[in-house]
Design brief:
Number of helices: 2
Order of helices and strands: HHEEEEEEEEEEEEE
Helix content: 10-25%
Largest sheet: 6 strands, mixed
Radius of gyration: 36 Å
Number of domains: 2
Number of strands: 13
CATH topology of the largest domain: Immunoglobulin-like
């Protein structure tokens, strides 16, 4: 390295031989200049390699997918007033900082809508660890095409993350009710003919990217225990059996003991 510094400063101590005519060979000051130029080229290559090696070492981060997340979904309290009867809220937290997340909705029979999500909240709220207090310095931005099966959310700036233990509190508007239900026709009327198969309850999944760049999940966001219970719906609309009657078409009355 000292040779490199000397070459850069122009003070390289290269032995100098006076011109001689023995054997016709001549070595002059121009030889030291050539050596200096060669050394400068070699040094430049070596320094570049050192810088690239140091930079690569500093930038290397091994993604680890060890973050755990959990949460729930529940009907939005203002759904009916907003004219969005299927509006669904979600709330989750992770034990490690996350920089982005994806919410996916899966439900059979959604093909006719072109997707399971019709709308969503583009700016969910971040709540502190108590699940109630808004976090004043953290925010979320969500984007996605509708209708589709999912939305993507991040924290607005590269490298910014949601604090581990804090909550993300947002909403999505499914194209169909979350709970098990009977399908509807093009006019929106419920199809309840015998033999009609019910649409099963939807599943809402979460995939989170943590601060190491690792992806975690999918995590199932279950239906909150405190939420309104889903109505009872048969898996298949039963066939109504005709009731036997006596006499002139009147139904027989049950006998009382």
């Amino acid at each position: 390295m000292s040779l490199c510094l000397g070459a850069i400063n122009g003070r390289l101590n290269v032995p100098f031989e006076r011109p001689t005519h023995k054997g016709g060979g001549v070595r002059s000051r121009s030889s030291s200049g050539a050596i200096t130029r060669v050394l400068l080229a070699v040094c430049a290559t070596a320094l570049t390699a050192l810088v690239l090696s140091a930079t690569a070492g500093a930038a290397t981060v091994t993604p680890t997918s060890l973050t755990d997340c959990s949460g729930t979904v529940f009907p939005d309290s203002g759904a009916k007033a907003a004219g969005e009867p299927n509006l669904l809220d979600y709330k989750f937290r992770c034990n490690y900082g996350i920089t982005a997340y994806t919410v996916l909705v899966e439900q059979n029979g959604d093909a006719k809508f072109g997707g399971t999500i019709d709308d969503y909240n583009p700016a969910p709220e971040v709540l502190e660890a108590d699940g109630l207090t808004p976090a004043p310095t953290e925010s979320i931005t969500c984007e996605g095409t509708t209708p589709s099966d999912g939305i993507n959310c991040n924290y607005g700036t590269l490298g910014v993350s949601m604090t581990g233990g804090f909550y993300a509190d947002g909403s999505i508007d499914p194209t169909a009710p979350f709970c098990k239900h009977l399908p509807t026709n093009a006019a929106g009327k419920t199809i309840d003919k015998p033999g009609t198969v019910a649409v099963p309850k939807a599943s809402v999944w979460l995939v989170a990217t943590d601060t190491t760049g690792g992806q975690n999940g999918p995590f199932l966001l279950g239906y909150a225990k405190t939420a309104t219970k889903c109505p009872t719906v048969p898996n298949v609309v039963p066939t109504i059996k005709p009731v036997k009657t006596k006499g002139h078409g009147t139904k027989s009355k049950p006998k009382h003991g």
